[in-house]
Design a protein that fits this description.
The structure holds 2 protein chains of 2 kinds. Chain A has helices at 9-17, 21-26, 32-54, 60-75, 86-90, 94-98, 102-108, 115-123, 164-180, and strands spanning 127-129, 132-133, 149-151. Chain A is mostly helical. Chain A has 2 domains: 8-98, no CATH class; 102-158, Roll (Structural Genomics Hypothetical 15.5 Kd Protein In mrcA-pckA Intergenic Region, Chain A). In chain A, strand 1 and strand 2 (132-133) form a beta hairpin. The longest helix of chain A is centred in the N-terminal third of the chain and has 23 residues, at 32-54. The radius of gyration of chain A is 23 Å and the shape is elongated. Chain B is mainly β. Helices cover 10% and strands 39% of the residues of chain B. In chain B, the strands form 9 sheets. Chain B has a 4-stranded antiparallel sheet with strand order 3-2-1-36, with no helix packed on it. Chain B has a 4-stranded antiparallel sheet with strand order 4-5-6-7, with no helix packed on it. Chain B has a 4-stranded antiparallel sheet with strand order 8-9-10-11, with no helix packed on it. The longest helix of chain B is centred in the C-terminal third of the chain and has 23 residues, at 497-519. The chains are: A mainly alpha, B mainly beta. The A-B interface holds A 81-83, 88, 107-114, 117, 146-151, 156-159 and B 196-197, 216-222, 240, 246-247, 256, 267-269, 271, 492-494, 496. Chain A: One of its GO terms (biological process) is ribosomal small subunit biogenesis.
C-alpha cells in the first residue's frame, strides 16, 4: 500500500489539507503522513469499486473482483455483515480505516490509558495479536484477531518478569543494601 | 398454573414502614392475597439466599431469625449498636457488624443460628461496599473467605473455631468474588497501581493449587469491578467500570464487559456490536448462557452462550434490565430507573416475543421462583408516591396490583427452581400470540402502515397520545420504527436505514407528483 509514497508526497499533503477539521482533531495522534497513506489506500479502493460498478451486473469480472473486495473489507472490519453491496464500499471514509489500526483498537479495548499510551505500548513490544508480538501501530486488525489482542507473555503487564528498569533498580538496591553497612536487608 | 403436587407454595414478603407481612403467593383466591403472617414490627428484613430463613431486624438492635416454613421465630439475638447484619446463603450463620465502642473490641461477629452461640469474632474498622459482608460464603457454603489488605483468608465454614485455615497473598487486592456453586474458585481484582495495569485473577480455593492464578486478565482504565459468576463455575463475567470516560463519549464513565473462563478458554472482552455502557448482564439460571444489554439508548440486547458466541439478538429498545426466568427459557427485558418502564417478555429458545407491557416507575422486579409470575414494585425511599406492587403473568398481562401508602420492600421468598414443574404447558398455550416481525413490514413498502406495526408488537399498553405529524411527514411508519426499534429478533440482511428511507421518500414523492399532475389535468405514468 505505501510503496509509491514518495512520489505521491505532494498530492497526499494537499489532500490531507482537505480533510475535515473534526477528523484531524480526533485523529490528531496520527501523523499527517499516515493519514495521507490511508487516504491513498482509500482512494485506490474507491476507484476499484467505482470501476466495477460501471460494469454489467452479471459480468464475471465484476462478480469475482467485487466479491473479493467485499470480503477484504469485511475481513478488516471496515464493512459490517449486512453491508454486502459495492455501494457500501464507496461510502467508506478515512475514519473507518483509522479506527482499524492496532493503536486505536488497543486504546478502545481498555488496554491503554490513552491513545498515546497505546502507541507507546505497541512500540515497546507489550502487545501481541494472537501469538504474534506486533510492534507496528498501523497494523490493520482483522475482525477475527480482534478478540485475541492482549499483553504479550514476556511483558511485565502480561505476567512476565519485571522489565529492564525495574530489574536495574532492584539490582542497585540489593547492591546498596549488601555493600552498605553489611546488614541483612531484603529489598524486593 | 401447572398441577404439580408437592411444589412449594409461593410467598411474597411485603414491608411497609415499621412492619412487614407475608402473603401467600399467587394464584390468589378471590383476587386478593391471603396473609400468612400478619403485620410484625421490624426495621428491615431479608431472606437467606436459599429461602430457608428470614432475617428480621427489630428496633433496639434485636435480630430475629424466622424459620420460613413455619414462620415462627427460632432465634433472637441482642446486638447493641447494630449497623448491619446478613445471613449466610444456607442460613446457617449470621454476621453482624456493630459500631465499635472501644478500639479493641471485636465488632464483627459470626453467630451460629441454630445454637445461638457466637463462633467467630473479628475487628473491622470500616464498612464499605467491597468489605461487607466481611466473610463471604459460596452459595453452598463450602467456602468462606475474607479479604484483608494484600491477603485473602480462608475459613472452614463447618467449623469456624479452627480460625484461618490458610491465607492467599494477592498484593493490592481490592475486591473479591467467590464462585457460587460449586464454590471452588475465587476472582480477585487488583486495581491500577503505578503504571501496572489493573487485573482480575482467578484462583482456586483449594489450598494445593494456589500458587499461581488459573487465569488472569490485565487492562487499564478501570476503577471498580463487579463479578458475575456462572452457576457451575465455568467462568466469571466481570464489568469493569471507570468513573472517567477517556474516549469522551459519556459523562458517566465507561463500562466494559469481560469474560474469564477458569480453563483459559476465553479471556478478554466480550465483543459487543454497539458502543456505549453495559447496562446489565445476567447469567441464565442454568448457567449455560448469559444476556447482555448494552449500548447507548436504545440499547441492544444479545444472548451469548458460555463460550461467548452469539446465540440470539434481541433487537434494540429502551431497556436497561434483564431478568431471567428461573425455569430458564423466558427472559424479561425491561427499562426501569430513568426509562419509562417498558417490559418485553421473550421466549429465548423459540426466539419469539411473547408480549410487552409497561410498568412505570418500578424500582424492583423479580420473577417468581416457579417462573409463572413477574412482580414489580415501586418502593420508597426511591419513590415516595404511587407505591404499589404489580404482578404480571409470564406473557406480560397484568394479574394483580395493589397500591400502598408507603412500601419499602416487596420480594418473593426464594426457592430452588428445581422444586417446581416446567412451564411448557403455559408457554404452548400462548402460541396464538405470534408477533409479525417488523422486518417483513419494512420490506413490504406500500403495505407498511403505522397502525399495523403498532398493534402487532404490543399487547395492551396504555394509549399513547398520537404524536402530531405534519402532513408532509408521510414516512411516519419508518420514523416510528426507528424510534421504538425492532422488537422482534432481527436477522441480518436489512437494507441500510438511510437507503430504505430515501427509497420510501422517493416513492411517496412520486405518488404525490402523480396525484398533483393528474389533478392538474396532465398525463402522468
Amino acid at each position: 500500500m505505501g510503496r509509491h509514497l514518495r512520489s505521491q508526497g505532494v498530492r497526499m499533503r494537499r489532500s490531507v489539507l482537505m480533510l475535515s477539521l473534526s477528523l484531524l482533531v480526533s485523529m490528531a495522534y496520527v501523523a499527517s503522513v499516515s493519514c495521507g497513506r490511508v487516504q491513498y489506500a482509500l482512494s485506490r479502493i474507491r476507484n476499484a469499486a467505482r470501476e466495477l460498478l460501471t460494469l454489467d451486473e452479471k459480468n464475471p469480472k465484476r462478480i469475482f473482483e467485487g466479491e473479493a473486495l467485499l470480503r477484504r473489507m469485511k475481513r478488516y472490519g471496515l464493512l459490517d455483515e449486512g453491508q454486502d453491496k459495492l455501494d457500501y464500499v464507496l461510502a467508506l471514509t478515512v475514519e473507518n480505516f483509522l479506527s482499524r489500526r492496532l493503536q486505536t483498537i488497543v486504546f478502545k479495548r481498555g488496554m491503554a490509558k490513552s491513545i498515546h499510551h497505546a502507541r507507546v505500548l505497541i512500540r515497546q513490544r507489550h502487545i501481541r495479536v494472537g501469538r504474534q508480538l506486533v510492534n507496528v501501530p498501523s497494523f490493520m486488525v482483522r475482525v477475527e484477531s480482534e478478540n485475541h489482542i492482549g499483553f504479550s507473555l514476556t511483558s511485565p503487564f502480561g505476567g512476565g518478569g519485571p522489565g529492564r528498569v525495574k530489574r536495574k533498580n532492584q539490582k542497585a538496591a540489593a547492591k546498596k543494601a549488601a555493600g552498605g553497612d553489611g546488614d541483612e536487608e531484603d529489598e524486593e | 398454573m401447572s398441577s404439580v403436587q408437592q411444589s412449594p407454595a409461593l410467598e411474597i414478603l411485603v414491608r411497609e414502614p415499621d412492619c412487614f407481612s407475608i402473603w401467600a403467593g399467587p394464584p390468589f383466591p378471590n383476587s386478593k392475597p391471603t396473609s400468612k403472617l400478619e403485620k410484625t414490627p421490624c426495621t428491615s428484613t431479608k431472606f437467606s439466599e436459599d429461602g430457608s430463613k428470614l432475617l428480621v431486624t427489630k428496633p433496639n438492635g434485636v435480630v430475629s431469625i424466622y424459620n420460613c416454613k413455619s414462620l415462627t421465630e427460632i432465634r433472637s439475638f441482642e446486638v447493641p449498636n447494630l449497623l448491619a447484619s446478613t445471613l449466610s446463603p444456607c442460613g446457617t450463620y449470621l454476621q453482624t457488624f456493630q459500631k465499635s465502642s472501644s478500639p479493641q473490641e471485636k465488632n464483627v461477629m459470626v453467630w451460629n443460628v441454630e445454637s445461638g452461640v457466637p463462633v467467630y469474632q473479628l475487628l473491622q474498622k470500616n464498612m464499605s461496599k467491597t468489605t461487607w459482608p466481611s466473610i463471604q460464603f459460596s452459595s453452598d457454603e463450602s467456602t468462606a473467605c475474607r479479604m484483608v489488605t494484600n491477603e485473602i483468608h480462608f475459613f472452614d465454614p463447618k467449623d469456624f473455631s479452627k480460625g484461618i485455615i490458610y491465607k492467599l497473598r494477592v498484593p493490592g487486592v481490592a475486591s473479591i468474588g467467590i464462585s457460587k456453586a460449586p464454590g471452588s474458585y475465587l476472582a480477585a481484582f487488583v486495581p491500577e497501581a503505578k503504571g501496572m495495569p489493573a487485573s482480575v485473577q482467578i484462583y482456586s480455593c483449594n489450598k494445593d493449587l494456589q500458587t499461581q492464578p488459573l487465569a488472569r486478565r490485565s487492562f487499564f482504565r478501570c476503577s471498580s469491578v463487579q463479578f458475575h459468576w456462572n452457576k457451575d463455575s465455568f467462568g466469571v463475567l466481570f464489568v469493569a467500570q471507570s468513573d472517567v470516560d477517556k474516549t469522551n463519549q459519556s459523562y458517566y464513565g465507561e463500562t466494559k464487559l469481560n469474560y474469564l473462563t477458569v480453563d483459559g478458554l476465553h479471556e478478554g472482552l466480550v465483543s459487543l456490536k454497539k458502543e456505549g455502557p453495559v447496562h446489565d448482564v445476567q447469567w441464565s439460571i442454568s448457567g449455560s448462557e448469559f444476556a447482555v444489554v448494552y449500548g447507548f439508548m436504545p440499547a441492544k440486547a444479545t444472548i451469548f452462550d458460555k463460550k461467548c458466541k452469539v446465540l440470539v439478538e434481541l433487537g434494540e429498545g429502551p431497556y436497561n434490565t434483564i431478568r431471567w426466568n428461573p425455569k430458564g427459557r423466558l427472559l424479561c427485558l425491561a427499562g426501569f430507573g430513568n426509562l419509562p418502564g417498558n417490559m418485553a417478555f421473550w421466549d429465548c429458545s423459540e426466539k419469539r416475543l411473547l408480549g410487552s407491557t409497561k410498568a412505570e416507575c418500578s424500582v424492583t422486579s423479580e420473577w417468581s421462583p416457579d417462573g409463572h409470575y413477574f412482580m414489580t414494585a415501586t418502593t420508597a425511599p426511591r419513590l415516595q408516591i404511587d407505591n404499589c406492587v404489580k404482578i404480571f403473568h409470564c406473557d406480560g398481562s397484568l394479574y394483580f396490583t395493589k397500591m400502598f401508602d408507603r412500601l419499602y420492600q416487596a420480594e418473593w421468598k426464594p426457592e430452588a427452581p428445581a422444586k417446581f414443574g416446567e412451564i411448557n404447558g403455559l408457554v404452548k398455550s400462548l402460541g396464538g400470540l405470534k408477533i409479525e416481525e417488523p422486518r417483513k413490514q419494512a420490506q413490504g413498502l406500500k403495505v407498511a402502515q403505522p397502525s399495523s406495526s403498532k398493534t402487532a408488537n404490543v399487547s395492551a399498553p396504555p394509549a399513547k397520545p398520537a404524536a402530531y405529524r405534519p402532513p408532509h411527514a408521510k414516512n411516519a411508519a419508518v420514523v416510528q420504527q426507528e424510534l421504538f426499534g425492532g422488537l422482534a429478533a432481527s436477522g441480518s440482511g436489512e437494507m441500510s436505514k438511510n437507503a430504505l428511507r430515501n427509497k420510501k421518500r422517493r416513492e411517496k414523492q412520486r405518488e404525490k407528483n402523480a396525484a398533483e399532475a393528474s389533478g392538474a389535468g396532465e398525463n402522468d405514468n
